[in-house]
Amino acid sequence: MKQKRLVIAIDGYSSCGKSTMAKALAKELNYTFIDSGAMYRGVALFALENGMILNGNPDKESIIDSLDEITLTFETIEGKQHLMLNSRDVENEIRTPAVAEVVSEIASISEVRQKLVREQRKMGDLGGIVMDGRDIGSVVFPNADLKFFVTAKPEIRAQRRFLELENKGIQTNLKEVLHNLETRDRLDSSRSDSPLIRTKDAILIDTSFLTPHQQLNKVLEFVHQNATIDN
Ligand code: CDP
Q: Is the CB of 188 within 6 Å of ligand 1?
């Protein structure tokens, strides 16, 4: 007899603590953690580095034509998951404001989404996965065993992301960070392909006044209710 290995989908707004929650949950359950946003950021970095952003706007045709040249994988380095773009470790580069500035426009391109969703589904084939993003419960794994929709007040999210960037030595200011989060939330929620939505079966978690530890305990309660025994 062994425990069923669940597929857990975590969606929600920018910087609301999804990745922190997903990472901690995967560690606790000994599951694979996949940050799907890192993959969209990887495509955005490729576009930036290859002259496919013109006056701040993505050159959609060139990006679509180059998709076969983009290979995205994850590698665990010193216990932390790093995104590899064509075998190069780009974990730091994908977190910069320059990438945050263009990523949501790029994530609205259907061809980009089709490629990444295909790869994300392959990663979840065997279960035992926690994936966070915007369309995980709605599109990538509509039959996920557990779905969470995470939210937090915009000012609190901006403050958290600002501190995160500051700790990484990335120069920015709170106002710019807040503006970027609000712009991305708007684009992510209003795009025609796979907009950010809360599906009916997703459990709502507001992390505004929760510590990472409290967040984890809250989701674990739901996981334990769902982890039925399989033969
Ligand atoms: O960490 P943060 O919440 O700021 O964002 P992220 O998870 O790194 O995702 C970056 C961007 O990728 C989002 O703003 C979305 O535009 C896009 N994204 C998406 O469209 N679908 C996903 N499953 C994940 C991210």
A: yes
Q: Is residue 230 part of a domain?
A: no
| 145 to 73, 98, 136, 202, 204: CA distances (angstroms) | 25, 35, 12, 10, 15
Q: Which residue range forms the structural domain that includes residue 177?
A: 7-225
Which among 10, 92, 103 is the best mutation to test ligand 1's pocket, defined by most ligand atoms within 8 Å of the CB? Answer: 103
Amino acid at 198: R
CA dist., res. 219 & res. 11, Å (int): 13
- In-domain check, residue 147: yes
Q: What is the CATH number of the domain that holds 170?
A: 3.40.50.300
| pTM check: above 0.85 | yes
Q: For the segment 64-115, what is each residue's pLDDT rounded down to a tens digit?
A: 999 999 999 999 999 889 999 999 999 999 999 999 999 999 999 999 999 9
Cα 154 to middle of ligand 1, angstroms: 16
CA dist 143 and 49 (Å) reads 37
Number of domain units in the chain: 1
Count the neighbouring beta carbons within 10 Å of the beta carbon of residue 153: 13
- Residue 2 in domain: no
